[in-house]
Amino acid sequence: MTTPWSRRGFLTVCSGTAVALGLGTRALAATDEFATLRARWRTLTLGEGFDPTADPFKSRLADLGTTASQYRATMAPATGSLWPDLVYADPDPDTDQESYGYSGNMNTSYTRLSTLAQAYSQPGTGLTGDPGLRAAIVAGLDHLHDDVYNAGQTRYGNWYNWQIGAPQALLDTCVLLYDALSAAQLADYLAAVDHFVPDSAVASYSGTSTGANRVDLCRVLALRGVLGASAAKVALARDALSAVYPYVTSGDGLYADGSFVQHTTVPYTGSYGSVMLGGLGLLFALLAGSTWAVTDPNRQIVFDSVEHAWAPFLYNGLVMDGVAGRAISRGLTAADPKQIQQDDHLRGHPILASIVLLGQGASTAESTRWRALVKGWMQRDYYSAPLADPVLSLPHLARLKAVQDDGSVTAVAEPTGHRLFPSMERATHRRPGWAASLSMADKRITYYETGNGENLRGWHTGSGMLYWWGDTFANGQYSDAFWPTVDPYRLPGTTASRKALADAAGGDWGASKPDVNWVGGATDGQRAAVGQYLKGLQSTLVAKKSWFFLDDTVVCLGAGIGCTDGTAVETTVENRNLGPTGGAPFTVDGTVEPASYPWSATLTGAKWAHIGGHGGYVFPGGAAVRALREAREGSWSTINKGGSTTVLNRKYLTMYVDHGTDPVNASYAYLLLPGATAAGTRARAADPNWLTVLANTDSQQGVLVRSLGFTGVNFWFGGTVGTLTASDPCCVMISESDDGTAVIAVSDPMRMRTSLTLTWRRAVTAVTSAPGTLASAATGAALTLSFGDLTGMAGASQRVTVRLG
């Protein structure tokens, strides 16, 4: 074949192609608006305002140079590859897993060229302005164009690599090497982009052109327009973004309750949502003040979502795994054993930087507030300091460093309160000293997502998994090789059958969803009652699960647990990752249990337990709990086909309730006290009056905590529990205050109630505020609330404030 070093001679006379692509006036580009936008994109992708001679930038730039030198040294253009380890020639091109790998290698080849271009363009890499490197990059671009990514090629494998991954890396490289490219070369590259990403890619908001993917496609179109001096392309990119802003009521996008969904059924705030946030920040900044500035008033929805959708899932710099989809399985890879393991902190840091970037296009007040939030998250991330993040891009690093060094910014403390996200069946609970997150599934939200050979054993992550972190402890709980080493049948908070499931059981891309309606809850913004009607994945398991999120406690109830799988059913109270050493003391009813591995015991009649450095657990009335310490081995390759085969070892302390084989109407009850001391846990267990379990049956589950003035009931069916009577299935929580008022939060998790009547046998003198869904209210010795149609409320809490008698 003709090598990329020798081709092109005939193209120099093909000026017609260049003109057709909007390149005919390229000689004047230095003075036009497109030159300004190219320069701005260069700054956005390289970063600004940092000292390349001082760390953390000095060492990062040196590392970039080292990596680039290795890539340059191993580049060996050949038919079907640019690097020997990245063969992209597919002998049987289609869309199977093998073809995904080949198309991924093509994508990665462009990514490596982008890395080389950054090393060439950045100061302090040892390769800055190196003419030999520049020639190698251009040769690599020519080779990939001639061999695989051109206007005559039919795509194979993963569409993403052709429409987003490769063209983004290609266009970024073209911006950085603009002056080294001839008009003919640039015309060819842009023709390839036009072939794989035509205008029709954003013609409708559907398929793979929604949410984060739509933003990525718009980034490709915008850069193609900037490089090709095409005003129409840039305008198309800007206008196509408008479909992303409005709240959606189904499928992909942002919801009014703060949910973010991608792939139709997957909660994705921390992965695809991160991509969308970062992409919008870049495009808003790129186009600001230009002819194509983003002025759609609906972009305010994105600004509002910083605190409405993203902030609730950020804690001490990490983004919670319950909204990261299959990204939780991306750790060390087989292709690059030196790669840094991905985790919740490393996924969180880019979101922090993207929030700072987005602030450039927001109001001064919003930007100031966000920078204060970011500074707080950065300061509190003791586990994984953002400025030491080895994979955070240099521009993002510069943005975070600027916030840290800005003396006018005062860090904001972690907010407290409860947030329900019924459109993606997630909840977050934040208290002084700790935070928790809950993941559920229903007929709209998948059990879990697998795909591309990733997250092969995430089967039970939607079965009521309860995550929690402390303010100054346990921030590495899910970061430190948790996913490849944890028992996937014993995820904390879940109820699951031990029936063996195949890798990727249920199908790719969130295909499997439980046929249940009653999943959701009610909150007053500080406390909450939440419930999940659980049906197991490829299992006969059914259960009713409830959580009551309070000031220092999460009360967990389960009832109606049944199964005919012929296997044991377990509810996992806790499964703490104690790291490689696993030395945390474990105390049960005042007795310190053995710290040896392995160890197991049945704790008969246990009243309370405590894990040193973590928290406490109370079992009302006593319970039979199985406990074990075990050293578990696993590799990332067991949960991700592209993962490293290196065997990792972590030690776990697990507590679970064994419901036996094929249980009938089994139940459980326990309290989680994050951060509690052993003495505090003992005291809570010794106070029989603190908690009253009002009901724990297949029909209703409810609790009363008199000292907090809290009542919470999940009515799986209408009926009476304590002082509450509901005409139909619903969720109710009440918080009474010392000032003689109370807030009653009611929801219709099933989204099926055209009317609902709730009676509270408590003296009430007046209703002081109510939602529009409240049709009537009767006060006096008891309160009767009659709601109208709740089907359009999307499971949201309807809050009524009353004055007590």
TrEMBL record:
Catalytic residues?
A: H263, Y272, R326
SUPFAM superfamilies, sorted? Chondroitin AC/alginate lyase, Galactose mutarotase-like, Hyaluronate lyase-like, C-terminal domain
Q: Where are the transmembrane segments?
A: none
- Can you list the GO cellular component terms from the UniProt entry? extracellular region
Q: Which UniProt keywords apply?
A: Lyase, Signal
User: Which residues belong to any copy of the Polysaccharide lyase family 8 C-terminal domain?
Assistant: 692-757
| Signal peptide start and end residues | 1-29
Q: Where is the Polysaccharide lyase 8 N-terminal alpha-helical domain?
A: 41-375
Q: Which domain of life is it from?
A: Bacteria
* GO MF term list: carbohydrate binding; carbon-oxygen lyase activity, acting on polysaccharides
Q: In Gene Ontology terms, what is a biological process of this protein?
A: carbohydrate metabolic process
What region holds the Polysaccharide lyase family 8 central domain?
418-676
Q: Which PANTHER family match?
A: HYALURONATE LYASE
Q: Which family does it belong to?
A: Belongs to the polysaccharide lyase 8 family.
Report what the protein is called: Lyase
In its UniProt entry, the species of origin is given as: Streptomyces yokosukanensis
